[in-house]
Each structure stands twice: as structure tokens, then as C-alpha cells.
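I hope you will forgive my troubling you with a question about protein structure. I set the record out below, with my sincere thanks for your time.
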Amino acid sequence: MFFVVFICFAWLFAAIFYIQPKVISKAENMIIFLIMLVISIHWNWIIYEELILVEISKSTGNYLSFLIFRSIIVPLAAIMYINIIQTNTSKLKTIMVTFGGAFCLFAFILLALAGDIIEIKHWHLIFDYLYFVLYFCAVLAIHYFYVITIQKEGKMT
């Protein structure tokens, strides 16, 4: 059942991103998506697979739900976030969108806990929330350094 829920949310995120006005170029969106995908996969690999601080369900549907969250929902949230932030926002709105976006992704962790997709062993949920806040801060930093690098080369895409 939770597999269907995560699939629906992945489609919802993709649809929202599709209709969302894009402030940055397709190339920038793709670069940010791929970098944030790598960060998300590595983070989950370390916490879930190597250190086994959180255990993933052995059920196929639940494991696929986890993979959809890690590989589709989280990176899509990152590029949706950067497109929202780039629309002439104030610092207060940036902070609110950062914490709100982190809370939305944190809600998926709570959903995964409720559906027995993940089981916490030696972990605290506040670490997940802090990770998502730092994840969104990393999106801003990566975009900033990308823009600086492109401007130094003299070509904006």
C-alpha cells in the first residue's frame, strides 16, 4: 500500500515541477538534480547500509518505496526548492521555505516509519530533519558556486 502512496507522491512532485515556472535553465536544473541525487544516495548508503543506524524493510514493495523516496522525491524537492528560492524572495521567505521543505521531506520519513518501510535502530529523528535542512542549504551553495563558475567563464546557460 505504501508503495502506491510513494509512487503517487513521486508523480505529484514531478507534475508540480513540470508546471512550476522555471527560473533557472534546464541545464542548471539537471546539474542540481544529479548532484543532489548523488548526495542523497551516498547519505542513505552510509546511514542505512553501512552503519545500519536505520534498517530498511526486506519487503520488495517497501524497499521500492524507500528507493523512490531517495532517488526521485528528494532530488525533485531540491530542484523545486531552488526554483522557488530564485524568484526574488526575501531572506525570511528563504528561511521559511527551507524549514518548510525540510518538514515536508521529514513527513515522508514519518510515513516510512508508519508503513514499516524503515525501522530506527540507533538513530534519532531530529537528525533526519537536520539533514534535510542542510540538504537544502547545500542546494543553495551548489547553485551559487555553479553560477559563479559559469560567470567566470563568461557564458551563462
